[in-house]
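Protein folding task:
====================
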Amino acid sequence: MSSLHVPPMDRADVRTDVCVVGAGPAGLALTLMLLRSGVDVALVERSTRGRRDFHGEILQPGGQRVLDELGVLDAARARGARALDGFQVLQDERLLLDIDYRRLPAPYDCLLALPQRHLLAELLDACHALPGLLLLEGYRAKTLTQKDGRVTGVVAQRRGETPLTVQASIVVGADGRHSQVRAAAGIDAGRREAFDQDVAWFTLPAPGRATGAVRVHRTEGGAVLAHDAHPGLLRVGWTLPHRTWNRVVARGMGEIRGELAAALPRFADLIHEHLRSPKDLRLLDVFAAQAGEWVRHGLMLIGDSAHTHGPIGAQGINLALQDAAAAHPVLLDAVRAGDAGRERLLPYERRRRPVAAAVHRMQRVQAKALLGSGGPVATRARARAASWVTRSPAGTRITRRIAYGGDAVRVRDDLFAVPLGGGA
């Protein structure tokens, strides 16, 4: 099958091996793995020309390795990225914690601020170069088709056009934290208000003023996250008490700028110059979620569709890419066997669900330790704990755990039958 953007308009349905809904990091990485294994894939994506809402862009070493093993990391970096030496916590500009990723073995000895548009463009270009792709851009997944208790496909529709039925052996929901596939299947998202903070994100032009790290700036009022981004930018996340955004906006931009400038004195001039209205900030509703089911007969959920995490520790894209690598051999086995039953797909969930649960636990601890409030006693306790982590050999083990997670998934390139570019 040739790579197409849309099916012929006189057809009411198409047939494929796997239908992936969502062209984010998880969906595109999985699509590329399946295409390289000789599997036909229909990719349903509601946006067009990569016009997606982007949140995180920090890649941990585990995610970098997945992309490298897929053969796309170097090209994605060449489009523009920033390497960061590690993760730091400061209290009123005094360094408390320094998790140095340069302790890790090369070449994955850094955090990578890689704009998602660069990552997705490179993954999509690699997919387009292979046979077997049917890309349905601008199509929204409306509902699932089912027969005898099995998911058999997706009904998708582009604005102003007749609905299209994509019949598939397996449907993969990779459509994010508000997954339509998950909702259409009647699977509970498992949302929990596990965090006390939401995050308001904004970006400042900061050429020549790179910090070289992901930093958490703790103050009396809370915490502000900041890291370098491409090209010459500073990406900032302002943590706020959960569900207080409307009250914060009511205080006015003068007070908001003042608080942020006090938290980031090095960038106070940029804050006063570039933050003009609340529209310059983008609120992220922070919550944890673990879907009640990740697989059913003919259905699999990956990435944020299966489990949603907070931004602390930059785990979201990492987990999504590792999910894709873990799902790939399971899906390939199911397609080849002609059996997409739940038991056939369950090894993926059994492998990855405990990993997601462990990250949820870790993030709750991190959020309380790094973002939580407290008086002088709590501050001194954090400082002592941070000093121990920074200086002890345990710091390297902790860094590696954060960098790769509890399940350092590798891409099963031994299952690839088609080289990048689709040549012989």
In short: The chain has twelve helices and 21 strands. Residues 253 and 276 are 7 Å apart (CA to CA). The first helix runs from residue 25 to 36. Confidence is low (pLDDT under 50) at residues 1-10.
